[in-house]
Design brief:
Elements (H helix, E strand, L loop, with lengths): L1 E2 L3 H7 L4 E6 L2 E6 L2 E6 L6 E4 L4 E7 L5 E8 H50 L6 H10 L7 H8 L11 H13 L3 H19 L1 H6 L7 H8 L4 E5 L6 H14 L8 E5 L2 H17 L8 E4 H13 L12 H18 L1 H13 L15 E2 L5 E4 L5 E2 L2 H12 L5 E2 L19 E3 L4 E6 L14 H15 L2 E6 H6 L1 H12 L22 H17 L4 H10 L6 H24 L5 H13 L9 E4 L7 H10 L6 E6 L14 H4 L1 H5 L3 E4 L2 E2 L4 H11 L11 E2 L8 E6 L5 H18 L10 E7 L12 H5 L3 E7 H4 L4 E6 L30 H11 L2 E10 L5 H8 L5 E2 L19 E6 L2 E6 L16
Helix pairs in contact: 2-5, 6-8, 8-9, 9-10, 11-21, 12-13, 12-18, 12-20, 13-20, 18-21, 19-20, 21-22, 25-29
């Protein structure tokens, strides 16, 4: 077919003579003595543009040369356009057929591999691992069409001769399978395999431990993904699950015994794992099998020794908590002796900055309450000030030897019929200088709920301006940032008052007790452990401090870092003097050798016990041990029982397991063999108030045996031991009479658990002579009781400011830790949960009149327990509405009997009509 311009068209459009010929899928053009041959594969290559009488043909050559052919009559142009469209259609159809064939071949190839992986998992009774899935997904071809375009191609009747043909239906099935959510498909396949395996491996699962595994335990054993975390419940048999997992891996031939390691936190725990595993192997007729159980300490040292040819030394004081505390105390004492500046700053922190500030405008934890119910904080000098911020200023003044008066009457009379006499916050008599500390933020604004506060600030400023009295101002924001005390020192200096920081200045007997040296040393030890575990230098933590929100008490954090620097250096120098490293350095060094390929882990299955107490350095080592293909990590723990933050534990390692490991299966053991259901319910509700904890629904088949929770109130601390004695005596009689059954030997076990070692006084010294025939009584701190259980648990220290301890979660630790659990008293809450869940039968809590623990109050308020006398008599105390801790008690004064708060002299509150008679 040929096209050329008409005579008139060529003349009137002044077009050169040209000839266009279509041959199959090619167009040939002759114009001006040149010849072009072009493949018609794109509508943009040949464009026919109609005019009034004549059309123009535009072409784009393969060399990107543009040709314009004019003078073609419109009727012939329409024929050319139709012919070009037919060529394009034919070309496109053939191309789409080829594209379809290519895409279908790629889909079939990948689906064959995916089906083969699924079939192997089913046939071999093996988990389809995350690693296998990701490898196959990485090989999945990237098709050139979007899903909607794919659908159009597969349903294009111009491409397919018969859309209902068997072969085409098969192609549509393949497309359907290609578009499946394959991770979900494999997850379903794994679930089906696990369900079948519960039946096929029943004989093994029933014999591997002394009692048949529960379905939860069995599923954890069967799940052989690359990263698995088992979130256990207290008394749910996590050790049984670990041991069974090792035996299953060997029995099925998944992993050789010498390629398995079980990691524990101390030698005793490692020995227990090893012994339990050996007994399991003997039950299964695998008596010659040995699996290695090691401490993190031993494994880390071994890795370093093999990788470097030299085994590092870790001194005992860098491992054992008490020795570490004592060593740090020696180092701090030495720093004090050698540096007056350090000693001054150390004691400045203890005396002045020992407590963190609450958020601006938030309620503070008061030291006591005045007669009108106003809360107060007691200063080092003994005054009662109205806020913690004023207390920081007053204690700073005292420590620096500045004479001051708190809320002294203003020298001018300002009292009116509606306002009492003005009393500025501070007055400095040696400088004749007044000082107002205003609760204002960075923008000079008070908290929104401080009614008329801004008017008061304005009035005070006006008084000083009008009467010519000197005034220095500080603000809440300035105190938090450090600017306020710097500004105050400058103003005092201008008034010729020199600061005299003196750590030896005698503290008045009536003053507040500062942060004890031991508490600051313990905090420093915890800080060093977390900083090293996270590989943070002092510069790193200083940068963290700069990035903190401005409304936090950054001056306190800065001063802490100032004293932490020399202590940190002294710790490292002490290690260097002994040519040794500490535990955290060792773990990070071992992990780094693995990460950089200087040492290859011989283990294919790494099992970590008590994972809730892992530091970030321990978690890093676990991750590095399995960072090669074909490796498995099996971590078991209970984040509800994470109570070793002081030793470097970081609960976020467990609550953020998938983020830490990149992926992972998270399974749960929710059936406990220890506590009765009622105690499970109470303890679970208590711990779950912290939303950061992993949710669990703990179930128990253990029958209740009497009340699971009791609370007894004594009048004075001196009566606590007698109260515990009476409780034990009653239990003794019940056991003798048979009212309460004993265990196998007729006796029961009783734990007396203290928040502190000092709580040991509550244990009657003659318990063995008096009650030893029916019971074994043992005192433990709650920390030491973890992993243990007893029939009965006694908590003798459920008193305010005793349990929970208010010093356990110091915010300065956030400088050395990632953003994590900020729930109030979260560590203490977990510690109380541990105490409750040691009991197989019952927990008895002892408290004092007017000093109930807030944790006990929480249980009482939800109806979980009722506080009674030791004989079971009801307690009808009236709680003080001011301090909310004490109760109103009868007293006798110069004017006769009256009632007032039992917290006196800390609280002066009286009920309405407090005097009587």
């Amino acid at each position: 077919m040929e096209w050329r311009p008409s005579g008139w068209g060529q003349r009137l459009t002044r077009s050169a003579h040209w000839l266009l010929r279509l041959e199959g899928e090619y167009v040939e053009i002759r114009i001006g003595g040149k010849h072009y041959r072009q493949h018609v594969d794109d509508a943009a290559r040949v464009r026919v543009i109609p005019g009034l009488f004549w059309a123009r043909v535009e072409l784009q050559t393969e060399d990107d040369e543009s040709l314009s052919l004019d003078g073609l009559p419109n009727r012939q142009a329409a024929q050319l356009s139709a012919a070009v469209q037919q060529v394009l259609f034919t070309c496109t159809t053939r191309g789409r057929k080829a594209l379809f064939a290519d895409i279908l071949a790629q889909i079939h190839c990948w689906l064959a591999e995916a089906d083969a992986l699924t079939d192997r998992g089913s046939a071999d009774r093996r988990w389809i691992t995350h690693e296998q899935q990701q490898a196959l997904l990485a090989e999945r071809p990237a098709l050139p069409l979007q899903p909607s375009e794919l659908q159009q191609l597969f349903l294009d009747d111009a491409v397919h001769e018969d859309l209902h043909a068997h072969s085409h239906r098969a192609a549509l099935d393949a497309l359907h399978d290609w578009q499946l959510d394959w991770p979900a498909v494999w997850a379903e396949a794994n679930a089906s395999m696990a369900t079948r395996e519960l039946v096929l491996a029943r004989n093994f699962l029933q014999r591997v431990e002394s009692k048949p595994l529960t379905e939860e335990q069995a599923r954890a054993v069967i799940c052989f993904d690359n990263r698995v975390q088992v979130v256990a419940s207290a008394g749910s048999g996590k050790t049984s699950t670990m041991v069974a997992k090792a035996a299953y891996a060997i029995d099925r031939g998944f992993v050789a015994p010498e390629r398995i390691v079980m990691l524990a936190f101390n030698k005793d725990a490692a020995k227990e794992l090893e012994d339990r595993a050996q007994r399991s192997f003997e039950r299964l007729g695998m008596g010659d099998t040995v699996v290695e159980a090691r401490t993190f300490h031993a494994l880390g040292l071994s890795i370093i020794a093999k990788a470097t040819g030299r085994k590092p030394d870790i001194p005992e004081w860098a491992i054992e908590a008490t020795l570490g505390f004592n060593k740090l105390a020696e180092l701090v004492d030495d720093l004090k002796d050698r540096s007056t500046h350090f000693r001054t700053q150390w004691d400045m922190f203890r005396l002045v900055f020992g407590r963190d500030l609450p958020p601006l405008g938030a309620q503070m934890l008061a030291d006591g309450y005045d007669r009108d119910g106003t809360p107060y904080i007691r200063t080092l000098q003994g005054e009662r000030v109205k806020s913690l911020e004023e207390c920081v200023i007053a204690d700073w003044l005292f420590y620096n030897g500045v004479a001051y008066n708190y809320e002294r009457r203003y020298e001018f009379d300002t009292a009116t019929d509606t306002h009492r006499q003005y009393r500025p916050d501070f007055y400095y008599p040696d400088a004749k200088l007044y000082h107002e500390h205003f609760a204002l933020d960075a923008d000079g604004q008070p908290p929104k709920h401080f009614d008329n506060y801004a008017d008061g600030v304005r009035w005070k400023r006006e008084q000083h301006a009008a009467r010519g009295t000197a005034l220095v101002e500080t603000t809440s924001f300035g105190l938090r940032s450090g600017e306020a005390l710097h500004h105050l020192s400058e103003r005092l200096g201008e008034s010729r008052i020199e600061l005299d920081p003196n750590p030896d200045r005698e503290l008045p007997d009536t003053g507040a007790k500062p942060m004890p040296d031991a508490d600051l040393i313990g905090l420093m030890r915890t800080f060093i452990a977390h900083a090293k575990s996270n590989c943070l230098s002092l510069e790193d933590m200083a940068e963290r401090l700069r990035q903190m929100p401005e409304d936090q008490f950054k001056e306190r954090y800065r001063r802490f870092l100032e004293i932490a620097g020399p202590v940190f250096q002294a710790w490292d120098d002490a290690l260097a003097d002994e040519r040794s490293i500490d535990f955290e350095d060792m773990l990070n060094m071992a992990a780094e050798l693995l990460e950089q390929g200087h040492y290859e882990s011989p283990y294919e299955l790494v099992m970590a016990d008590e994972f809730q107490d892992a530091s970030r350095a321990r978690a890093r080592l676990c991750r590095a041990l399995v960072n090669r293909p074909g490796r498995y990590l099996f971590a078991v723990g209970d984040d509800w029982q994470s109570i070793n933050r002081f030793a470097g534990a970081d609960v976020s390692v467990m609550t953020g397991f998938r983020e830490w490991m990149g992926h992972g299966q998270v399974l749960k053991l929710e059936q406990t063999f220890r506590c009765p259901q009622a105690l499970c319910d109470v303890s679970s509700r208590f711990i779950s108030r912290n939303p950061a904890q992993i949710a669990k629904e703990v179930r128990s088949a253990t029958p209740a045996m009497g009340p699971v929770l009791q609370a007894f109130q004594m009048n004075r601390r001196e009566e606590l031991q007698d109260g515990v004695r009476q409780y034990l005596a009653r239990l003794h009689q019940q056991l003798l009479s048979g009212e309460v059954p004993g265990e196998r030997d007729g006796r029961v076990t009783v734990f007396v658990l203290g928040r502190y070692r000092a709580d040991r006084y509550a244990v009657p010294s003659d318990w063995k002579a008096a009650f030893g025939s029916t019971m074994e009584v043992e005192f433990l701190t709650v920390h030491r009781s973890k992993g243990r259980e007893a029939d009965y648990v006694i908590l003798p220290g459920m008193v305010n400011r005793g349990f929970p301890s208010l010093r356990s979660d110091d915010p300065v630790l956030s400088l050395a830790m990632p953003d994590g659990d900020t729930f109030p008293l979260s560590e203490e809450r977990r510690l109380f949960y541990v105490a409750l869940t040691r009991a197989r039968r019952s927990v008895a809590m002892f408290t004092l009149q007017g000093k109930h623990s807030p944790f006990l109050d929480e249980l009482v308020n939800e109806g979980a327990v009722e506080v009674t006398g030791i004989s079971g008599t009801a307690i009808n105390d009236e709680r003080c509405p001011v301090c909310k801790v004490g109760v109103f008690v009868d007293r006798t004064g110069p004017h006769g009997p009256f009632r007032s708060c039992s917290s006196y002299p800390l609280c002066h509150s009286k009920p309405k009509g407090g005097f009587r008679g």
